[in-house]
């Protein structure tokens, strides 16, 4: 992956370990990620009539997770067989979807935090807010994030003797210093530091509002729910995406030969796949936001489950009566 530093140490054993790591992690993620996000999308779209409380953003977050989860079987096939027979276009698409999921998830977590904070501090804004506003914002997010993720494809080369290679085995293109620095700054500022500041500010404002209302003995359940929502968004954001973005800056410096020390470059390259696996866990953690923090989600899921159970019991009773 990094031709300048591959002469430092022999990474053959670690390359095999990476394949096993990706295989096991993606296998663990696939089933629960598919089931939880499919159920979440179904409930959010069909049974929640209230379009406030960031429901539209949650739907888009679920779609982002599902798109990535559905590409995991192809990734698992590649890391088991060490061969990609599906063509260059599908390889680039799956490679692209990983980063699209990551950064779309980050932006929608930011949108959820901002909306919950804004509606809590300005209740009248929530009353006048329209669902189409969230739809327009979500569309803009997909377009902007989609364009911003395109450099991850352009950074990879699939030529020469690597036509059956994909993902981590695609060689990295060498960029000039100005382009490399620009990409690093943009990815870190727009993809991590900026969202972290925004989510942190939302948390601070909600905590401050909660403290003021406690002093006035006017604290409401909505305030505490909004605080839990933003805190969980912050927790998912930090746990899943902080390791990758901390290492990404150093990893890009290694691939562009800015860092040439063998010990440092090896440690950075070793941690890179681990950070990507941690980032992929957001597909399983995001549904927790919907279930544990959205009252409507739990109510509709419970009501639907109860109605299905009652229908089956009535069907069994009618069948047994008919037989008697």
SSE order? HHHHHHHHHHH
- Per DSSP E runs of 2 or more residues, the count of β-strands stands at 0
Question: Assembly state here?
Answer: single chain
Low-confidence segments, ≥5 residues, pLDDT <50? 1-6, 305-324
Query: What would the CATH topology be?
Result: Rhopdopsin 7-helix transmembrane proteins
Q: What is the share of helical residues?
A: over 70%
What does this structure look like?
This protein is mainly α. The protein has one domain: Rhopdopsin 7-helix transmembrane proteins (Up-down Bundle). It is 80% helix and 0% strand. It has eleven helices and no strands. Helix 1 packs parallel to helix 9, helix 1 runs parallel beside helix 10 and helix 3 crosses helix 5. The longest helix has 39 residues. It is globular, with a radius of gyration of 23 Å. It starts with 11 loop residues before the first helix and ends with a helix. The N terminus and C terminus are likely disordered. This is G-protein coupled receptors family 1 profile domain-containing protein. It is a multi-pass membrane protein. It comes from Cirrhinus molitorella (mud carp). GO terms for molecular function: G protein-coupled receptor activity. It holds the Pfam family 7tm_1.
């Amino acid at each position: 992956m990094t031709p300048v530093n591959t002469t430092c140490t022999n990474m053959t054993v670690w390359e095999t370990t990476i394949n096993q790591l990706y295989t096991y992690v993606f296998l663990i993620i696939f089933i629960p990620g598919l089931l939880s996000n499919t159920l979440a999308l179904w409930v959010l779209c069909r049974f929640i009539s209230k379009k406030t409380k960031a429901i539209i953003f949650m739907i888009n977050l679920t779609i982002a997770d599902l798109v990535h989860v559905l590409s995991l079987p192809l990734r698992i096939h590649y890391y088991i067989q060490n061969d990609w027979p599906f063509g260059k276009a599908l390889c680039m698409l799956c490679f692209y979807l990983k980063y699209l999921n990551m950064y779309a998830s980050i932006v929608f977590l930011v949108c959820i935090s901002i909306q919950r904070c804004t509606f809590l501090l300005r209740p009248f804004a929530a009353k006048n807010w329209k669902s189409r506003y969230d739809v327009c914002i979500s569309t803009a997010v997909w377009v902007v994030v989609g364009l911003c993720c395109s450099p991850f494809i352009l950074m990879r080369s699939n030529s020469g003797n690597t036509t059956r290679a994909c993902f981590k085995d695609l060689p990295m293109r060498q960029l000039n210093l100005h382009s490399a620095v620009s990409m690093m700054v943009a990815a870190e500022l727009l993809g991590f530091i900026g969202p972290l500041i925004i989510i942190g500010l939302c948390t601070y404002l909600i905590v401050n509002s909660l403290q003021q209302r406690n002093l006035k003995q006017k604290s409401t359940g909505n305030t505490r729910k909004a605080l839990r929502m933003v805190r969980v968004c912050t927790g998912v954001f930090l746990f899943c995406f902080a390791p990758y973005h901390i290492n990404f800056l150093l990893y890009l410096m290694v691939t562009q030969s800015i860092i040439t020390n063998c010990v440092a470059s090896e440690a950075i390259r070793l941690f890179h796949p681990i950070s990507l696996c941690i980032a992929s866990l957001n597909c399983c953690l995001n549904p927790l936001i919907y279930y544990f923090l959205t009252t409507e989600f739990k109510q509709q899921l419970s009501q639907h489950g109860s109605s299905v159970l009652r229908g089956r019991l009535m069907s069994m009773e009618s069948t047994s009566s008919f037989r008697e």
